[in-house]
Specification:
The chain has helices at residues 16-32, 53-71, 74-77, 80-85. By secondary structure, the chain is mostly helical.
Length: 88
């Protein structure tokens, strides 16, 4: 698929570390290809307090920002690592 807007809804269960790994690998691709825009930051992990509302919300917003950023760069949303992330 060459256009991420073709999806209307997709539910995938992933852990924070899965997103953290995806973020790292996509950031490497972004750097290597000299793509425009500042790659979004991702929050550091919390060993304690990870179930607190504020921590969960921060992680959620970071994941949404990452996905929105990736959706604006065809080289990222067609990357093998990104597509594999959504395999069931």
């Amino acid at each position: 698929m060459n256009d991420p807007s073709g999806f209307t809804s997709l539910t995938v269960w992933k852990r924070y570390n899965d997103f953290k790994k995806l973020h790292f690998e996509l950031e490497q691709i972004h750097r290597q290809l000299y793509l425009p825009g500042k790659f979004p930051d991702f929050p550091k992990g919390h060993t304690f307090n990870r179930f607190e509302y504020q921590v969960i919300e921060e992680r959620k917003q970071a994941a949404v920002s990452l996905l929105q950023f990736v959706g604006n760069h065809v080289q990222l949303f067609t990357a093998k690592i990104f597509n594999k992330f959504f395999e069931v």
